[in-house]
């Protein structure tokens, strides 16, 4: 288990590609790429102006950022934007030489005007997108609520192969909604600790039939081990009949 964790073997199928989906390509294009282009400029500025300790520290960081960025572009997860965090941190530092040059050559009035223009431009770009994203998330949340309330039994298993299964746990545990439904994320049951916990609580091992289609067939597998009803939450979300 420790070796699997250190080698991240369960994620190896993502290696060798780059496949952002949904809004991710726009986030990377608008919110990441401009600052990635600023990273080499930061390196040039530090080499020309920094003290020896600062240059060494900065170049070490930039090398790390380069390695990480190269890896991310070869890591085919659907949501890679968040992995560019360290690169963005380094890229933002390009503001330091720009501000330094600006304060030396421009008047205070010009600097204030430029700052206000930058803030206004950023707001004009960000506010409509943030508002639209908030509305989208509200619609998603409302849909999740409706589907959760539409599960056709009060005690049983709800299988949801999605990170949003945590949202169902919030409804169940923190909001007290339908507490006798057991939310199961198939990916989580591939972890030994979660699998053992499931076996101890419900009296059977859901992964004894492990094979390529395990994730898809988990509702059927659980259905064979329990008399409780089982439903795939995607069926409920899409208005299809439940598994059992």
What can you tell me about this protein's structure?
The protein has 244 residues and is mainly alpha-helical. 63% of the residues lie in helices and 5% in strands. The chain has helices at 2-7, 24-49, 52-72, 85-92, 95-105, 108-150, 165-174, 192-202, 214-225, 233-237; strands spanning 156-159, 181-184, 230-232. The chain has a three-stranded parallel β-sheet with strand order 2-1-3. Helix 7 links the parallel strand 1 (156-159) and strand 2. The longest helix has 43 residues, at 108-150. It is elongated, with a radius of gyration of 25 Å. It starts with a helix and ends in a 7-residue tail after the last helix.
Q: Topology of this structure?
A:
Blueprint: H1 2-7, H2 24-49, H3 52-72, H4 85-92, H5 95-105, H6 108-150, E1 156-159, H7 165-174, E2 181-184, H8 192-202, H9 214-225, E3 230-232, H10 233-237
Parallel strand pairs: 1-2, 1-3
């Amino acid at each position: 288990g420790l070796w699997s964790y250190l080698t991240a073997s369960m994620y190896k199928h993502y290696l060798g590609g780059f496949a952002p989906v949904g809004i991710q390509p726009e986030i990377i294009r608008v919110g990441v790429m401009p600052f990635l282009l600023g990273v080499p400029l930061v390196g040039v500025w530090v080499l020309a102006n920094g003290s020896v300790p600062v240059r060494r520290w900065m170049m070490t960081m930039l090398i790390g950022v380069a390695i990480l960025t190269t890896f991310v572009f070869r890591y085919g997860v659907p949501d890679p934007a968040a992995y560019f965090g360290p690169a963005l941190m380094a890229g933002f530092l390009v503001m330091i030489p720009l501000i330094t040059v600006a304060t030396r050559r421009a008047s205070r009035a010009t600097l204030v005007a430029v700052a206000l223009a930058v803030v206004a431009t950023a707001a004009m770009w960000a506010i409509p997108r943030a508002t639209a994203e908030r509305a989208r998330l509200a619609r998603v949340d409302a849909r999740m609520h409706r589907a959760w309330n539409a599960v056709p039994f009060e005690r049983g298993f709800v299988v949801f192969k999605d990170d949003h299964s945590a949202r169902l746990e919030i409804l169940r545990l923190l909001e007290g909604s339908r507490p006798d439904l057991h939310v199961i994320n198939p990916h989580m049951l591939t972890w030994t600790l979660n699998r053992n916990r499931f076996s101890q609580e419900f009296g059977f091992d859901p992964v004894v039939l492990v094979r390529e289609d395990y994730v898809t067939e988990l509702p059927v597998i659980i259905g064979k081990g329990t008399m409780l009803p089982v439903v795939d939450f995607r069926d409920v979300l899409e208005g299809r009949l439940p598994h059992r």
